[in-house]
Amino acid sequence: MLYFDVNATAPPLPEVESVYAEANRSHWHNPSSPYSRGARVHILIDTLRQEIGHLIGCSPELIVFNSGATEGNNAVLAETARKFPNQRIVVSAIEHPCVIEPAKRYFPERHQVAKVDSSGRLDLNHLEAELSKGGVCLVSVMAANNETGVIQPWKEALDICRKYKVLFHCDAAQHLGKKPANGLGDCDFVTGCGHKFGAPKGSGFIKIPESFEDFKGTHGGGQENGHRSGTEDYPSLAAMVAALKFREHSMDAVNAAWAVNKSVFEKSLLDKIPDAVIIGQNTNRLANTSCILMPGFPGARWVARLDKHGVSLSTGSACASGKTGASHVLTAMGIEAEDARRSIRISACWDATPEDWSALTKTLFKAYDELINEKPASPGVEVIQI
Questions:
Q1: E strands along the chain, which residues?
Q2: Most exposed residue of 61, 166, 302, 344, measured as fewest CB within 10 angstroms of its CB?
Q3: Hey, which residues are catalytic here?
Q4: What is the pTM of this model?
Q5: Are 278 and 291 in contact (CB under 8 A)?
């Protein structure tokens, strides 16, 4: 089986399985307990907090551990709405649903959308125009898009927010483990998700600003320095930090290999199917991810056919792939809804070999030939994310 859907979730990183197992065996105690073993776990969690703070570049006291990006993004928007009940927020048009939906819920009639260009990159001029109107308390821009792989100008967006004294939130779920974490700590809010880079599901963190000392992602027993109630899962958090450190250490070599293999793949694809169009081809993208407009067939049909041949991929965001309708990311880029419904996302694992990419290429061509022979290609284009 070839797995090319790592942007949905990454396979468990073998190098951290022993970390999880040892922590689960030796440090399973409740960190809030009054006895020494519980206190020891509490100290270990604070050590992890220091390591995350060091990796992203912020004070460890600003790190709040949680279950992942969905919880984190919801908490950021809920707490911002509580603190600024009469101000607006601006979110980019290509944010993950776990940002867009809580924006609608907590800021009804008070949220604006920042446009992106045809390559899927945030329009900084439009963002600044929105902020110049005043009354904005928060801007939310992801670091890298989960569907297209297009890297967003989040640092430039942060600078604009600083100019207008507006808080900045960056969903770094797709960035962490693929691009350097250092510098993210400059953002007011950062959300991270362990299972996106090989840690257990249910592990994540938020970086909060000093001005949110009363931040409460969940209410209850007051864990995480009062910021997020609920018993911490030390083994999962230990595995998350170990996974992120491992990804940081091997990042340069992995990105170089991804870039070469993806380039060969995309060239082969265009040679075989010249009507295909690579989204963001000349834009800075995650090295493991492509988005390609293919002539022909609905995305679900591609997924089913490739799955039959042993290749796992999806039609876009795994969190929304079960829903009908076109990708909001692709339509925000100006792609017609009919064409956007044909999307397929393919994203490579860190250990994908040239042979894996070659097998993907051959299988994709085989599926294409089969589909063409079954039914003539309809007019228009189709999106495949690779």
A1: 2-3, 63-66, 88-92, 111-114, 136-140, 167-171, 189-193, 204-207, 277-279, 289-294, 311-312, 346-347, 382-385
A2: 61
A3: 319
A4: 0.93
A5: yes
